[in-house]
Amino acid sequence: MKNYNFAFLDESSKRAVRRALLKAVAIPGYQVPFGSRELPIGRGWGTGGIQITLSIIGKKDILKVIDQGSDDSVNAISIRSFVRAATGVRTTTDSQEATLIQTRHRIPEIPLRGDQILVLQVPLPEPLRMVEPLESVTKRMHAEMDYAPIWLALYENIVRSGDIELGADYPVMVENRYIMMPSPIPRFDNPKLHKSPALHLFGAGREKKIYALPPYTDVRSLCFEDYPFRVEDMSGRVCRLCGAKDVFMDEFFDPASGKRLYQCSDSGYCEKRKENQPRG
Fold first, then answer.
1. Boundary residue ending a domain (174, 196, 221)
2. Is 198 among the domain residues?
3. 20 to 30 A Cα–Cα from 95, which one of 39, 107, 244, 258?
């Protein structure tokens, strides 16, 4: 891509995205509108996250791209190849080696450090969309902290099913001010957002919104005193490849044995565990 600017986007576009990011970092959880640019990728395939990555990446960065925990999915491979072609930066599957991580649907199992940035691809950034279809109304509701409808929706979920059934995109309260969508990560990953030393940046290209969690931000999953927040129960599950426990697992059914098998969702974490195991 020698005929293109470094990181594909022109410098004016990258500055505009960075200005939106600065505002988002200054107001944790607040959705900042931005002029979403055209990319050689269909909207809905992570263009918001890609624009953030292209706007902040430097020549010395080391990039990791994951999709639902995997480094080897079509989405992850395509984005990684595109960014590498547009920048020439080194890429990795090791979350500890990476300085910049772009992800869809997962947060790495190994805790992030203060010198790392996590960029999350977001399809639907507005947590109030489940109770209010109009953008003008949701903006007013955020300004007035009028979050009663979303609390009511969670309560109605408990009345109907006996529990809060949200498996992903579980809303969080940021610094006791804004309710925020953490992107479609599983509930298992929500606690990783609280007081994380890493900078988290969220980009929704189709919705033209950017928001952020600065390091050490207070992030609490919404819940009631008598219905506390809980993550998916992974107890008793062991990864068939590396033997890991107490991490988020993908589940498979083996028709040959008739048994359910489990495997680490975070493929990089799984590979690292296998490499560190003693060879017999």
1. 221
2. yes
3. 39
Distance CA 124, CA 169 (A): 9
Pick the closest to residue 155 from 145, 164, 146, 147 (CA basis). 164
CA dist 126 → 54, 70, 74, 116, 189 (Å): 24, 26, 27, 26, 19
Query: Within 13 Å, how many C-alpha atoms sit on residue 80's CB side?
Result: 23
Mean pLDDT of 56-63: 98
Which of 76-80, 172-176, 270-274 holds the top average pLDDT? 172-176
Is 50 in the same domain as 117? Answer: yes
What is the span of the domain harbouring residue 33?
Answer: 11-221
Query: Phi and psi for 121 in degrees, rounded to 5?
Result: -80, 130
Residues 94 and 119 in one domain: yes
Whether residues 256 and 205 share a domain: the answer is no
pTM of the model: 0.95
Find out whether 102 and 47 touch, Cβ atoms under 8 Å: no
Q: Structurally, how many domains does the chain consist of?
A: 2
List the catalytic residues. Answer: 29, 239, 242, 264, 270
Residue 252 and residue 190 share a domain: no
Here the tokens at position 31 are 């959705």
The answer as to whether 148 is a domain residue is: yes
Q: Is 109 found in the same domain as 243?
A: no
- Which residue pairs from 230-234 have beta carbons closer than 8 angstroms and sit at least 24 positions apart in sequence? 230/187, 231/186, 231/187, 231/188, 231/190, 231/191, 232/167, 232/186, 232/187, 232/188, 234/188
- For 108-162, the pLDDT digits (tens) are 999 999 999 999 999 999 999 989 999 999 999 999 999 999 999 999 999 999 9
Within a domain: 137 = yes
Q: Which amino acid is residue 55, in one-letter code?
A: S
Residue 222 has pLDDT above 70, yes or no: yes
